[in-house]
Amino acid sequence: MRLVGKTALITGGANGIGLAACERFAEEGAQVIMADFDVVTGKAQEQLLKEQGFDVLFIQLDVVNRENIRSCVELAIETYGKIDILINNAGITRDATLVKMDPVDFAAVLDVNLTGVFNCTQAIVPYMLDKGYGKIINTSSVSGIYGNFGQTNYAATKAAVVGLTKTWAKEFGRRGINVNAVAPGFTVTSMVSKMPEKVIEQMKSAVSLQRLGTPRDIANAYLYLASEESDYVHGHVLHVDGGILM
Length: 246
Ligand code: NAI
What we know:
It is an enzyme of class 1 (oxidoreductase). One of its GO terms (molecular function) is 3-oxoacyl-[acyl-carrier-protein] reductase (NADPH) activity. This protein is α/β, with parallel strands linked by helices. It has a single domain (7-237), classed as Rossmann fold, CATH 3.40.50.720. It is 49% helix and 15% strand. The protein contains nine helices and seven strands. Strands 3-2-1-4-5-6-7 form a seven-stranded parallel beta sheet, sandwiched between helices. Helix 1 (16-27) crosses helix 9 (215-226), helix 3 (66-80) runs parallel beside helix 4 and helix 4 runs parallel beside helix 6.
């Protein structure tokens, strides 16, 4: 029970890695705010977790909409009085090679994966500063570290998240807030399952452990960075990719 007494807001918490994180954090005793665009799945998952006795609250959130973020954060604070942990996990892909990439898709990915992280953190960090405590965990990707064919927009945002993480680590370290990132490798969620089977097989063979990641593999890394076990880890990008490139 590593997160007893802690309140965690997890963006993109209704599906995939975010959902695994909601489950994992709830198992460790946290009060979990599952914040997601997808109301139907979010409400259903909130119900399932509540039936297991976990303290989970679904709040609809669009990380692109600052007004919506403000009301989501207000409801979270009204309910729990604080947000100790922010997991900036929501993300999308709109893949195409550079030549074929629609500028609308380029901008959409920047909006969610980069501006969304800025929006949510800017809305929540004042509450952490007030308490002199916080854990912010951003979600990068192997694509952001090494680049990835067909992911100009996505790779750019995930590299940018590393820059945000290190900058915020410098800004907030002295105020009691840890800031780190996780860079997942290819992980079995809808983001990957919509890729062609051939590409998935190629990805698998590039991994030293010869398997794709599970959402729980990544959730466990979020958990480590959210727990006191990582109190002296700061401005770090934790690669959780089965040894994809070393
Ligand atoms: P997913 O597609 O399964 O889940 C993403 C969640 O984000 C969904 O619940 C969706 O409704 C939510 N979301 C999308 N746009 C939103 C918005 N504007 N506001 C609020 N919520 C929104 O994706 P997955 O795979 O679980 O990805 C989670 C994070 O991990 C993302 O940041 C992704 O880029 C990153 N990642 C995933 C990898 C993978 O192989 N699956 C690899 C590396 C990084």
